[in-house]
Design a protein that fits this description.
single chain, alpha/beta, Spore Coat Polysaccharide Biosynthesis Protein SpsA, Chain A, UDP N-Acetylglucosamine Acyltransferase, domain 1, 7-stranded mixed beta sheet, 6-stranded parallel beta sheet
Length: about 375
């Protein structure tokens, strides 16, 4: 177990292509998989590896994120010593700069007793054994290790993610951007392992020179001067940085092999518990290949879809290839296909909505949709 490691999760992520879901919440607290939030995965990865000191740096004072995380009890981080720390900063004054944020909270790093740091973003969806990655890092003797995933679908996914160019000794030579031109690529998962001393020195150097606004830029643009080791992750990974990839990641969870990988019984994904009653299925209900959370009433037909808590799907409604978030009401005779519906939406009777897997239709929260 990584008793000598602290975790840092930065939520300074690119949300331009997923703004419909992040207007009133950070990307990290967007619901996924029927009952989870995106941040649950990276947070659980750290906790499962034995890390008990985790700092989360958020862009603003988000009610949804604070409500979800609380004091960290679902992740066993509600502690007197160490635990979960949530740091907020004003995005208007941050200029999307990790360094300006960290400059204000250096005391957190100095006071933490751990020797090593695992630094990560929230939007790389995976279930990873960080303990194994940390062992490889320490054995390598390198200053920094970055975790990556070799993919064969870079032309359709991971848009604008960082691509690592790695030599035969597993050392990062240079870093580029994925423009979805070629299929094969080594995608950076934006998970970095290093000594806390190395992190502190990087932060102070960046502040002093003013050259870099993010930690990863300060590493990537100096790979010729810093020994950056690369560790390959073999499991499922998806970067949720667009509506299309959010839709894809949810639909992937309907694939049994992906579900078994993401929800590994040896490394569970924890989330905030809500005491909802079991879902009620009526006599005429038809469901197939779907994930349906507790607290729902299902009277219609649900195919190949993900339904969150407290959703009511009325009789004769047909839901296909959809993601329905919490507390939505889908009335009688409605037909939905390739649609994402955010929280507290009412779809009136006999309404038909249709998108495509490439361009799913998104209905923003608290709307009323009708056929007129």
């Amino acid at each position: 177990m990584l008793n000598n490691y602290m975790g840092v999760i930065t939520l300074n992520e690119n949300q331009v292509d997923i703004r419909g879901l992040t207007t009133n919440r950070p990307l990290a607290s967007v619901p996924i998989g029927g009952r989870y939030r995106i941040i649950d995965f990276v947070l659980s990865n750290m906790v499962n590896s034995g890390i008990v000191n985790i700092g989360i740096f958020n862009k603003n004072d988000s009610r949804s994120l604070i409500d979800h995380l609380g004091k960290g009890k679902p992740w066993d981080l509600d502690r007197k010593i160490d635990g979960l720390f949530l740091f907020n900063f004003n995005i208007a004054n941050s200029n999307n700069s990790d360094m300006k944020i960290l400059e204000n909270y250096m005391e957190y790093f100095h006071r933490s007793k751990q020797k090593y740091v695992i630094w990560a973003s929230s939007y790389m969806l995976c279930n990873i054994d960080l303990e194994e990655a940390a062992k490889k890092h320490e054995a390598s003797g390198k200053e920094i290790t970055v975790i990556y995933k070799t993919v064969n679908n870079a032309d359709k996914s991971f848009y604008n993610c960082d691509i690592l160019n790695i030599n035969q000794n597993n050392i990062v030579q240079s870093v580029g951007k994925n423009l979805c031109v070629e299929k094969n690529a080594n995608i950076s998962m934006e998970i970095f392992i290093m000594k806390k001393e190395t992190l502190i020195n990087l932060i102070y150097k960046c502040i002093k020179t003013g050259k870099y606004v993010t930690l990863k830029d300060s590493i990537y643009k100096n790979v010729k001067d810093i020994n950056v080791n690369a560790y390959e992750f073999q499991g499922y990974c998806e970067c949720i940085n667009s509506i299309k990839l959010y839709y894809k990641a949810n639909m992937d969870m309907l694939n049994l092999s992906v579900t078994e990988d993401l929800f590994n019984k040896n490394r569970p994904i924890y989330t905030k518990i809500k005491d909802e009653p079991p879902t009620k299925y009526t006599k005429n209900t038809k469901t197939s290949n779907s994930l349906i959370a507790n607290g729902c009433i299902i009277q219609g037909t649900v195919n190949n879809s993900i339904i969150s808590r407290n959703v009511h799907i009325h009789k004769d409604a047909v839901i296909t290839n959809c993601i329905i978030l919490q507390s939505c009401k889908i009335h009688r005779g409605t037909k939905l296909n390739n649609v994402i519906i955010d929280k507290n939406v009412i779809v009136e009777k006999n309404t038909e909505l249709k998108g495509t897997p490439e361009f799913p239709l998104l209905i923003e929260k608290q709307k009323t949709i009708n056929s007129h």
